[in-house]
Task: inverse folding
């Protein structure tokens, strides 16, 4: 195998985890600023990169299950908080929205890949 190709493959292998950690850092930092369209676009793009490069076929089911659990729990908590009138810091709401955007975009890619694999058969 060509040495340049090996280095290229090694760099690509680092891109997925890097996108995830950069996304998490952005999620945490931006919980304290007013959200914008650009923020959600960046988080969604990073989520797609994570979904394409970081989640293997073996990790797909646990990742999708964890994503569903997180999103359902976040929505349930939001409904409960709204219903009871409890006041929570805005930063927590922003944090949940940011995480949902990052992980949701990755989950969409993984779900589409799983649907494709199931539909194409053996």
Result:
């Amino acid at each position: 195998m060509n040495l340049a190709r090996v280095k290229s493959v090694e760099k690509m292998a680092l891109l997925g985890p890097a996108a995830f950690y950069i996304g998490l850092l952005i999620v945490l930092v931006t919980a304290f600023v007013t959200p914008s369209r650009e923020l959600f676009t960046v988080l969604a793009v990073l989520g797609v990169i994570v979904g394409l490069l970081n989640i293997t076929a073996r990790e797909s089911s646990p990742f999708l299950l964890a994503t569903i659990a997180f999103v359902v729990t976040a929505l349930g908590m939001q409904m409960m908080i709204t219903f009871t009138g409890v006041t929570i810091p805005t930063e927590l709401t922003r944090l949940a929205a940011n995480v949902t955007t990052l992980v949701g975009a990755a989950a969409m890619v993984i779900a589409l890949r799983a649907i494709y694999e199931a539909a194409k058969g053996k």
